[in-house]
Amino acid sequence: MRIADPLKDNMYAELARRNLRRQSIRTILAAIGIIIGVIAISSMGILGNTMKMSVTESFADIGDKLMVYPAPGEETISQRQIGQIRKVGGIDRIIPLRSNAERVEYRNEETFASVYDIDEEGLVTLVELEKGRFFKSGSTDCVLGSGVAENLGATVGSKVIIDDSRLRVVGILTERGLGFDIDTDSGIFTSSDMYEKLYPDEEEGYSSVIITVDDIDELDRVQEDIEDRINKKDELIMVFATNMITESIGGVFDAISLFLMGIGSISLLVAGVSILNVMLMSTMERTKEIGVMKAVGASRRDILRMFLLEALFLGVAASLIGGLLTLGGSYMVISFIMDDAAYLLKPSNILYILEGVLFGIGTSLLGGMYPAWKASRMRPLDALRYE
Amino acid sequence: MPRPIVELRDVTKIYTLGKNRIYALNRVSISIDKGDFVTIMGSSGSGKSTLLNMVGCLDLPTSGKVLINGKGISGLDDDGLTSIRRNNIGFIFQQFNLIQTLSALENVEMPMIFTGTSPDKRRKKALELFRKAQLPAEYEQHKPNELSGGQQQRVAIARALANDPPILLADEPTGNLDSKTGHSVMELLQELNTAGTTVVVVTHDPRLEEFSNTTIRLQDGAICHENC
Question: What's the gap in Å between the CA of A374 and the closest CA on chain B?
Answer without folding.
Answer: 14
